[in-house]
């Protein structure tokens, strides 16, 4: 599109929608008009892509995820359509800053952290690689809560992301379907002797899809992310006469994590899981039936991916649709189900490996529960005589009055993968070892990846431009080409340019920090960043212990030689996770204590930026010098902020956990700071049960002073939280071995302090990180899923074979 065409289109849209002239429009009107224009351009491609899949009968994957975290889409859509620069300069001509328009858009925050963001990186990459793939999830009316700090405490406010409407989505009334919940189900014998389930007193709700085009990177492909919203079917309206009664239905897709500390919250959560699974599967089968193919070909046309355990009811739901609704016999349907489904495990944390009480399942999804019982029964019978009773008992889906969702997902699918090498190995050797014995061929690894377009091209233009200058822009399409940067390892001029680009982003972040928190920080300081969900195993607290160590050292010796450092945190704590919230409070109080103490002469500063989300990550990551990846070895399945930060030239301080191991392998020991227990050492402690945090405390004077600060009034206003933290570390023996790793962590931090002073040495490390980050492109990750698990092909390959053209 030329600049003139863009201007003409915008002018027309502003007149039609707002009765405004281009010159008089404000950022909001301009944003929505530009969004409309983008949609008009991409809708044509979307339609063509979809038609193409249909006529070519391409095998497609459906990625089922209870979380998606796309962030803002304006700039990434413009980039992927190839008109970012044209639009930017056109707007500049009329004195409008594209960045200002981008700020109007609300983050689509339908997720918590890595899990949801990964799903969105995959959506971008699947489309960009020309792969036929769709997302399937929930359109929550409210996204993850908006976080504010009041007196240092986390306060959760509703995230009203839909208040001004969502410009990207299309409500597809005609694709709605009914989902049935509750009631009771009994089996009736038919004249032909077969048993048929009969349901009574069910609640029928309407699932209405809202589709968003997932625009591929400059390749003409637009895939679909389908998010379901609940409504009361017209036929049922009379049943819900008061607003309160209506709300019982409408609440189903109201919030991302209904408070699961209460029974009522858990019930809604379970209903949510079934709702989007059932709607998704029904719509897929409806599509398949249009192809007029026999059932045994289903797995040649459809792959369904279970992202974490939340969509594990795909297994019984697909069985229900095939057996109850389409009359297939059980064995045939089971064979199809296993071939169609695949599952990714994202964590070894027990709390996230869902187990649902049987009584609740019976209430919410009675027919699904019956099917799970049958799956369980057949599982046990089939393995009799092949495996030991113990093994069978340990792996069956029904145990201890609960349904083990991970067991269901593994048994009912053909592939189970972990998300980094060490994590996948741990699944095989320990966490899911029993299943590995039974189904060794099902286990595989797919190391996570990131959408490098968003995290470098869009988030960090100064660096992207320098890279273009040095190695041309081929890396924008082929991130592996970033390796060419290694030729500049000893080129001072190149290294300086990269440092200057970093400085630009640090200054921007410093301004943002000042604006949002009032804290003044210097861009000459080391920007040390830890951004991720707040969880004890991620050990934000260990970072805080190190800050306190520095605090005491500077207090004792004000002339101490230390490179000024700004410690930057971004993290939300789950609303019912009190310990995590206490850590937030402690960080905020330490921040306050440090930042207001003039005797520290700005040698250290602590900034906890509120409301961490994708857009804030885009501001922080390009400005980071140090990337904190300090989880207890074995606990972080992969991590993905580690990849985003390295791509932007931050140097990592890390334990050998998750993808940190692969980052170390990629950059080499000289370009990363590794410390702490290994996974094996952690498991040795578990086995010997001889860890004593008290002993470490007793023997280490410095640590004593630091821990005591939580309870002796040194850190103000944390009477309750300080005690809780102190007890967790001492009385309850420090579950995540912070004290054990602390000493090593401090040593690594001291090395960073030294190395940073030698600017060229540091830049060299930074360069090695950028250069090797191409290894972690989500494009490659989804290609591996496509080949090994989903067996889907890019539309280009397919159409070339057929000799037709694509859209
Ligand atoms: C989780 C894991 C991460 C992993 C991510 C994506 C659940 O994310 O803990 O290690 O990288 O999934 O696979 P998070 O902790 O950020 O919510």
From TrEMBL:
Keywords: Carbohydrate metabolism, Glycosyltransferase, Pyridoxal phosphate, Transferase. The keyword S-adenosyl-L-methionine does not apply. CDD domains: GT35_Glycogen_Phosphorylase (cd04300). InterPro entries: Glycg_phsphrylas, Glyco_trans_35, Pyridoxal_P_attach_site. It catalyses: [(1->4)-alpha-D-glucosyl](n) + phosphate = [(1->4)-alpha-D-glucosyl](n-1) + alpha-D-glucose 1-phosphate. Its EC number is 2.4.1.1. Its cofactor is pyridoxal 5'-phosphate. The keyword Transferase applies. PROSITE patterns: PHOSPHORYLASE. It is an enzyme of class 2 (transferase). Belongs to the glycogen phosphorylase family. PANTHER family: GLYCOGEN PHOSPHORYLASE, GLYCOGEN PHOSPHORYLASE, LIVER FORM. Phosphorylase is an important allosteric enzyme in carbohydrate metabolism. Enzymes from different sources differ in their regulatory mechanisms and in their natural substrates. However, all known phosphorylases share catalytic and structural properties. This is Alpha-1,4 glucan phosphorylase. It comes from Tetragenococcus solitarius.
């Amino acid at each position: 599109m030329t600049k003139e065409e863009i201007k003409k289109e915008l002018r027309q849209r502003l007149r039609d929608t707002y009765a405004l002239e281009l010159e008089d429009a404000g950022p909001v009107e301009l944003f929505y008009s530009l969004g409309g224009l983008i949609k008009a351009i991409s809708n044509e491609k979307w339609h063509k892509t979809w038609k193409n899949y249909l006529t070519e009968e391409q095998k497609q994957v459906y990625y089922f995820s209870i979380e998606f975290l796309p962030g803002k889409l304006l700039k990434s859509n413009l980039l992927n359509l190839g008109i970012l620069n044209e639009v930017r300069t056109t707007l500049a001509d009329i004195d409008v800053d594209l960045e200002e328009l981008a700020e109007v858009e609300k983050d689509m925050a339908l997720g918590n952290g890595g899990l949801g963001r990964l799903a969105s990186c995959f959506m971008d990459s699947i489309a960009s690689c020309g792969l036929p793939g769709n997302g399937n999830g929930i359109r929550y009316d409210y996204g993850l809560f908006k976080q504010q700090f009041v007196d240092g405490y986390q306060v959760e406010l509703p995230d009203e992301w839909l208040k001004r409407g969502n410009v990207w989505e299309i409500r597809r009334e005609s694709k709605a379907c009914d989902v049935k919940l509750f009631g009771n189900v009994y089996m009736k014998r038919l004249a032909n002797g077969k048993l048929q389930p009969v349901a009574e007193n069910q609640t029928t709700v309407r699932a209405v899809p809202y589709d968003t085009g997932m625009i591929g990177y400059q390749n003409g492909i637009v895939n679909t992310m389908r998010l379901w919203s609940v409504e009361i079917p017209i036929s049922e309206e009379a049943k819900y006469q008061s607003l309160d009664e209506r709300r019982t239905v409408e609440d189903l897709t109201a919030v991302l994590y209904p408070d699961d500390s209460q029974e009522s919250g858990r019930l809604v959560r379970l209903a949510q899981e079934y709702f989007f699974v059932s709607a998704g599967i029904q719509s897929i089968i409806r599509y398949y039936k249009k192809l007029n193919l026999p059932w045994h070909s289903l797995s040649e046309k459809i792959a369904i991916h279970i992202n974490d355990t939340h969509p594990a009811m795909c297994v019984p739901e697909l069985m229900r649709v095939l057996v109850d609704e389409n009359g297939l016999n059980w064995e045939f349907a089971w064979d199809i189900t296993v071939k169609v489904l695949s599952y990714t495990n994202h964590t070894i944390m027990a709390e996230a490996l869902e187990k649902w009480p049987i009584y609740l399942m019976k209430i919410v999804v009675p027919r699904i529960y019956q099917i799970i019982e049958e799956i369980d029964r057949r599982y046990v019978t089939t393995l009799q005589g092949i495996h030991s009773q113990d093994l069978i008992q340990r792996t069956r889906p029904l145990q201890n009055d609960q349904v083990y969702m991970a067991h269901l997902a593994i048994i009912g699918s053909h592939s189970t993968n972990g998300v980094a090498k060490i994590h996948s190995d741990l699944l095989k050797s320990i966490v899911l070892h029993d299943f590995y014995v039974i189904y060794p061929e099902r286990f595989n690894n797919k190391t996570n990846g990131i959408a490098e377009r968003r995290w470098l091209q869009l988030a960090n233009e100064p660096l992207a431009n320098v890279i273009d200058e040095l190695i041309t822009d081929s890396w924008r399409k082929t991130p592996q080409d970033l390796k060419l940067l290694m030729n500049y390892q000893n080129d001072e001029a190149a290294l300086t340019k990269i440092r200057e680009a970093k400085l630009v982003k640090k200054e921007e972040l410093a301004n943002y920090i000042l604006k949002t928190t009032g804290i003044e920080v210097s861009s000459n300081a080391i920007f040390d960043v830890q951004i991720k969900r707040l969880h004890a195993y991620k050990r934000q607290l260990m970072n805080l212990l190190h800050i306190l160590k520095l605090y005491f050292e500077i207090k004792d010796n004000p002339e101490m030689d230390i490179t000024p450092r700004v410690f930057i945190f971004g993290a939300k704590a789950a609303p019912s996770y009190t310990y995590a919230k206490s850590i937030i409070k402690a960080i905020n109080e330490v921040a306050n204590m440090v930042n207001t103490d003039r005797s520290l002469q700005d040698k250290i500063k602590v900034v906890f930026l509120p409301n961490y989300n994708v857009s804030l990550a885009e501001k922080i990551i390009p400005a980071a010098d140090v990337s904190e990846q300090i989880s207890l070895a074995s606990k972080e399945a992969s991590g993905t902020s580690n990849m985003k930060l390295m791509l932007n030239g931050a140097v990592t301080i890390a334990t050998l956990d998750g993808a940190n191991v692969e980052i170390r392998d990629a950059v080499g020991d000289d370009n990363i700071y590794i410390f702490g227990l290994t996974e094996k050492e952690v498991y040795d402690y578990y086995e010997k049960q001889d860890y004593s945090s008290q002993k470490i405390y007793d023997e280490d004077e410095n640590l004593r002073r630091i821990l005591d600060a939580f309870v002796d009034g040194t850190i103000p206003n944390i009477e309750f939280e300080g005690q809780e933290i102190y007890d967790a570390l001492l009385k309850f023996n420090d579950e995540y071995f912070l004290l054990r790793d602390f000493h090593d962590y401090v040593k690594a931090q001291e090395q960073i302090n030294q190395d940073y002073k030698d600017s060229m040495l540091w830049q060299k490390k930074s360069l090695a990180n950028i250069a090797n980050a191409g290894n972690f492109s989500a494009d490659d990750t989804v290609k591996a899923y496509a080949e090994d698990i989903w067996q889907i092909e890019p539309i280009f390959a397919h159409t070339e074979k057929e000799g037709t053209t694509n859209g």
